Please model this.
Amino acid sequence: MNKPNSILVKIVLGVFLFLGGSLSFGQAIFKGTIVDIETDEAIPYATVFLANTTIGASTDEKGKFSLYMPEGNYEVIIRMLGYEGITFNLPASMVQPQGYKFMLVAVDEELEQLDVKESRDPAWYRNLDDFKRYFLGTSLNSRSTVILNEMSMILDDQSEPGKLIASSRDILKLETTNLGYRLDYLLNDFRYDYRGGLVTYSGFPLFIPDTTLSKRKQRRVERNRLEAYYGSMQHFIRSLYYGKTVAEGYEIRRFYRKEDPEHAGKFIDSVATEPITSLAIMKNRDRREFLEFSDYILVTYQNESESPLYVQGMGRGTRKSQTSIMSLTVDSVEIFENGSLSDPFGIVVEGYIGWERVGDLLPIDYYPETEPKRGLQ
Model:
């Protein structure tokens, strides 16, 4: 999986220019101007948003925009019809107060289009079902999530035998009814390996809250958001950042995995007897927090039971806690107060948190107003 280009790489490539100034820290105002690279003319109505948040804006008639950027690490997305988009990583602590100038490159708009009313063959619909299962997920929230423009999808199970590769001609429009959001999801990559059962996907969603809900429906949505948040990756990373994993209901243990010498392709797993605290896997460097460990860790969230949908096909009943296995693909990953990571591909997750997919996502600027409660369903 390719990691997002760094801000320095973007500068070298001349995609955008920095207007000058010194570094800021913590929360910031991210502002700038978007122009045509050939004419230097302003581009009005371009979209700028912080991926995985509810924070976005459009440029005005002079091509200017301004966004409030809370402390954390973000993928910034810039899009305009008829131009190549820009995607880059930017921590709030690195935002320059004087702003930026982004230069977009025009593209040929004579792109091949497929009539959305054109019929698809049965294989396309089977692939669509698989895509929904492994991208949206199979949880209760996922089952209530709808792709509004699914006919824009390209579903390919022929280019690489045994794999389903998905892309979209347009930004995917999703509705997560249970959680009260509409998502504009820029799908970067999706692959499902039928043989190995491995799913990889990446993308950049903008969350748009549904402001038309009645008070009764809004209360139900808030309850659903609480349930989705507690025990999620976002909640776990925030708990690590504040050193409150135990108080928030998490138990962490060392987890060991080695190849089974008698059965090729299988493994022997073992778990350490004693739990560890967040101090054992966290490093503080210059007031910055890093997650750092070798092998694996077993993370158990003790304040919620498993969903019955999770254990379907496992041949067992639900357990009173949710367990996940995590490993690092890099030596260490910086974590931020809002639950974001310096490298979104730096952690591989199996188990319960890995089962929760796009249908259970919340924006990283979501913060619950109540404390976690044992048995919240």
